[in-house]
Description:
Blueprint: H1 6-17, E1 39-43, E2 48-52, E3 61-65, H2 81-84, H3 89-92, H4 99-110, E4 115-117, H5 119-122, H6 128-135, H7 138-144, E5 147-151, E6 173-176, E7 181-183, H8 189-194, H9 202-210, E8 214-217, E9 222-225, E10 230-232, E11 236-237, H10 268-278, H11 294-304, E12 308-309, E13 312-313, H12 317-320, E14 324-325, E15 330-331, E16 349-350, E17 353-354, H13 361-365, E18 370-372, E19 375-378, E20 418-426, E21 431-435, E22 453-457, E23 463-468, H14 475-480, E24 483-491, E25 498-500, E26 503-505, E27 526-534, E28 541-551, H15 552-556, E29 560-567
Parallel strand pairs: 3-4, 3-5, 5-8, 28-29
Antiparallel strand pairs: 1-2, 1-4, 6-7, 8-9, 9-10, 10-11, 12-13, 14-17, 15-16, 18-24, 19-20, 20-24, 20-29, 21-22, 22-23, 23-28, 24-27, 25-26, 27-28
Pfam family, one: HET
Protein name: HET-domain-containing protein
Amino acid sequence: MAQIDMSLVRTWVQQCDQSREHRCSRTSLTSRWPTDFKVTLIDVHRHCITQVDPTRHRFRYLALSYVWGKISQLELTKNNIATLADDESLTRLSDSLPQVIKDAMTVVYKLGERYLWVDSLCIVQDDSEVKHDLISRMANIYDNAYLTICAVDGVHANVGLPGVRPFTRVFDSIGETTRLRIARRPSRLSKVVFSSYYNDRGWTFQERLLSRRCLYFTKEQVYFQCKSNIYCEDRYERRLPTDGWRGGHVHEDIRLLSPLRSPLRGDFPAYSRIVSEYTAKSLSFTSDKLNAITGVLYSLRLSNGWQFLYGIPVTLLGLSLIWVPTGQARRHIEREPLNMFPSWSWIGWEGVVDYNIMLTGEEWTERPKMNTCIVLSAVEVLGAEVTYKESIALAPDLALPGPNSPLCHYPSGRTNVLHLWGPVAAATEFTFDMFFPNPTRLGKLPCNIAHPIVRVRDHHGRCCGAIYGVDSEDISTFRSRECGLVLISETSHVQHLQFSESGLSIPAYDAQHFHTRYSHNDGCSVYNVMLVAFEEELSHFCERLAVGQIHADAWSNRDANYMYIHLV
């Protein structure tokens, strides 16, 4: 096993191709190439780049998923695109090619294939328009790949694929005699990938998620994973491991999405899981946070017609705006404030976020459980794929009646503004205090959260709600800035807020109960709210601080007015 037996790998792929289930060969919405779209590929026979029109020619190619790292490498540019199209150009420039690309070309050739897609050499790196277009097409690129080569052990592009060349992988020997060498059995694929630097990266997360089949190269051995099986050199696993591992398809359900499969909200759980996992990944540049997940969002848009703004499905505002950080979170700060991602999207924050803190599966799938109380009146996002200049029609059961506003005027250069019409109460209508979790009960929450909770009290000092995902030092912000609570949506059940005769409690945090004034009764509701801070000079402009939940009776007793707000 010092060097990979590529004939064995070919056998694995052929067995998958010939499977009666045909799970890996089924077409999906992202399999359809856009009209007049040409793919740039590396031709491993001619050792150069070439362009192919997938709408006119049938061909197969492999894709490479790897960590770039901070190394200098050959890139496709407007100046060298003609040169790199010459036969043997990559042979002449071999010294400039990173080892992982050279090894991937060898793998393609030994598997009997011809074409390889690699981002650095198949996207013109200094053409922003072309680059942006191809980044938005990552779903097409990886979904249509015959398989994806995953460089699991690489921390940069000069780390090659172990086992492709002689003496590039080692065995962890337990013992050795003159005739027998005993080696430690290699780890399961899930353990190898989860513990890798490769798995921590944002770009590679999307690439695996969108790929049909993956060929993982590790320092121990090579693994081939498709939708049905996992193959490896020392054994054949006929079933996927039982530890939740889905390999290249971290969430296989994203590939089964269909406009006719489920109600409008039926795909939101898949979206929420993707967001939670993606926000745990690392990126070299925070400006890539939206780009590195665009392919996945494109798949969701094709499957159910959702429109996205900065990663948020605007058709489901009542759900999608109430994400919560599970640990330390801070705003992405850019040198140019106008280029900052918006505060209302998880794209604009650093740190892991989750939807399960405030939502359960019932809110996702049962329409009567959730009513949206805000109306998206007008949005204009310059440079986005879709520009809205009139009201976006929400599903009838999601939006309460509200006026349609003209396109709101806001300072020149603002491209991240979400214009909303809805109920807003001044934060001074309530008081706030910190409420630290009981570590012995944290496991009862639907997700991991390390933050304290901010308890919300009415003007009599009675506990009536909670704000989530706020650092203890930030509570002073509620008092020092002009803040408000925006009513986002209404729900009739919250999993971790328990109603009883003695009041409202959060058992996962401690045994204290909210005041009996807000005990359970028929028709009781909880309001999902967003805590915002208003800008001093622009009274209707505000930014998100946190989200939380307030008992409906407590809200109805306060002075809340309908108003336009402009979230930045």
